[in-house]
């Protein structure tokens, strides 16, 4: 029986301690800043990114890995005897899935499965973690595919941003654009809906917005008994840890199987801007 490797991308921004020993491989997206190009999380880390963002008059842009990057990684894993499941940031937000698909077509291999997670950040991270943990325990490619097919209905993210400026300029909002003009002095709550960023509510202060995120998570979780929570933040670590504490308490400590605080990757931070705090989730039952 072939072993399985999981390929994901840097927008998941998975903490190193979570992926240690797992068959998981992370390909970086790129931040393009004027004449400079940085590999997400490799050439530029969140702390440096947000410092530079606060000082720069130039708003960076982003780019997905090229098909060649995927082709080289897939070939490396195939040569090592792996089947591959490759799961990535929502295709509505990035061309990463498209690059992965092109690489598979070039290689013409049936044992490469590619999935649009329809999410990003730690919601994507949980998808990749679950698949990698199953692969480590001996799950086949077919078993991993069956798990991945069910993930979009069990994972998601809601988040509060300090400003819609970055999402607007990057063209990454759907109905969230309706908030423009009316939300300039408010803290918008956005969510990932079918892979797209959509507007949900407008709250007057960040603290109230974070409390509303917690209340919304309680509603979303319903009666589910086993939940993983990932609090993501863009240069707002203190608020992130407070949000994890509040969310765990509100949902119930016995129901939260895993709780993680992690940075928003520079690529995602390019579009959300500093001060963003969000809750990514994965339903485990």
The biggest beta sheet, please? 6 strands, mixed
The overall pLDDT average reads 91
Number of helices: 10
> Which stretches are poorly predicted, pLDDT < 50 over at least 5 residues?
none
H/E order of the elements? EHEEEHEHEHEHHEHEEHEHEHE
Which CATH class of the largest domain applies here? Alpha Beta
Question: Which percent band covers the strand fraction?
Answer: 25-35%
Helices and strands in order:
Blueprint: E1 3-9, H1 16-19, E2 24-27, E3 30-33, E4 36-39, H2 46-55, E5 61-63, H3 67-79, E6 82-88, H4 96-107, E7 112-116, H5 121-136, H6 141-150, E8 155-160, H7 165-170, E9 187-193, E10 196-203, H8 206-221, E11 227-233, H9 237-251, E12 256-263, H10 266-272, E13 277-283
Parallel strand pairs: 1-2, 1-6, 6-7, 11-12
Antiparallel strand pairs: 3-4, 3-5, 8-9, 8-13, 9-10, 11-13
Helix pairs in contact: 3-4, 5-6, 8-9
Explain what the structure shows.
By secondary structure, the chain is an alpha/beta fold. It folds into 2 domains: 3-29 and 64-151, Rossmann fold; 155-283, Hypothetical Protein Tm841, Chain: A,domain 3 (2-Layer Sandwich). 38% of the residues lie in helices and 27% in strands. The chain has helices spanning 16-19, 46-55, 67-79, 96-107, 121-136, 141-150, 165-170, 206-221, 237-251, 266-272; strands at 3-9, 24-27, 30-33, 36-39, 61-63, 82-88, 112-116, 155-160, 187-193, 196-203, 227-233, 256-263, 277-283. The strands form 3 sheets. It has a 6-stranded mixed β-sheet with strand order 10-9-8-13-11-12, with helices on both faces.
């Amino acid at each position: 029986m072939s072993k399985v490797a999981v390929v994901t991308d840097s927008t998941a921004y998975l903490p190193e301690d979570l992926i240690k020993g797992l068959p998981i491989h992370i390909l970086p997206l790129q931040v393009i800043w004027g004449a400079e190009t940085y590999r997400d999380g490799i050439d530029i880390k969140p702390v440096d990114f947000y410092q530079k963002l606060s000082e720069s008059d130039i708003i960076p842009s982003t780019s997905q890995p090229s098909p060649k990057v995927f082709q080289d990684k897939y070939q490396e894993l195939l040569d090592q005897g792996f089947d591959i499941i490759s799961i990535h940031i929502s295709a509505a937000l990035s061309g990463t899935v498209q690059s992965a698909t092109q690489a598979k077509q070039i290689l013409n291999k049936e044992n490469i499965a590619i999935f649009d997670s329809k999410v990003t950040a730690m919601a994507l991270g949980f998808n990749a973690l679950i698949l990698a943990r199953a692969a480590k325990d001996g799950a086949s490619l077919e078993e991993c595919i069956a798990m991945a097919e069910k993930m979009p209905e069990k994972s998601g993210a809601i988040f509060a941003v300090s400003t819609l400026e970055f999402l607007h300029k990057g063209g990454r909002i759907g109905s969230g654009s309706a908030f423009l003009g009316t939300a300039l002095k408010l803290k918008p709550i956005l969510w990932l809906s079918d892979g797209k960023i959509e507007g949900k509510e407008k709250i007057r202060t960040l603290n109230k917005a974070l409390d509303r995120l917690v209340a919304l998570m309680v509603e979303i979780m319903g009666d589910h008994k086993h939940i993983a929570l990932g609090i993501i933040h863009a240069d707002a670590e203190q608020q992130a840890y407070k949000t994890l504490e509040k969310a765990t308490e509100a949902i119930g400590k016995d129901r939260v199987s895993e709780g993680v605080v992690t940075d928003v990757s520079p690529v995602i931070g390019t579009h959300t801007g500093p001060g963003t705090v969000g809750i990514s989730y994965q339903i485990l039952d």
